[in-house]
Sequence to fold (169 residues):
Amino acid sequence: MNLTKNPFKKEKGLDFKSPDLTLPEKVSPIEKAADQKAEIAREKLERLESHQESSLEGDKPSLKSSDQRNHQAVVLKSKQLKEIELVLQEDLETIYFKMDEAQRRMFREEGERVAREIEAIIHTGRAIAVKVLEIIKRWLKLIPGVNKFFLEQEAKIKTDKIIKINTHN
Fold:
């Protein structure tokens, strides 16, 4: 045994590879599912935006600013649709403002789509509470980290209010 050798000094001529001490990154199935859902939602949002832009361009001259486009969309909303949107956004302000900008935008646009879908169900005359409840639950699941019990309770409350709107009209 050679005591003069420094064990920490790399010898010339020999190419030693140090072992890879980093662990492979493990992603849980829950994280994968959440990432997949987020990616699907982003893709849907992009398709919806491109579809809306193309339909706006084809029907009417293009609008210069998004404020004008939002104003036009507000003008076209029926009284019943406004009431449905008010019911849907009720008690969600704090949650909404805790989201980042992209999540807010996606949540708002999906909420508007849900409101139109509920209005269509009501107009068909088959305003079944179960359908409305499922649509609202699906929308509320977009909230990151939502509690299952909160989701059920809010969906039920909002469904009852929407059905009440339908019976008053």
Summary: The two ends are 97 Å apart (CA to CA). Residues 29-59 form the longest helix (31 residues).
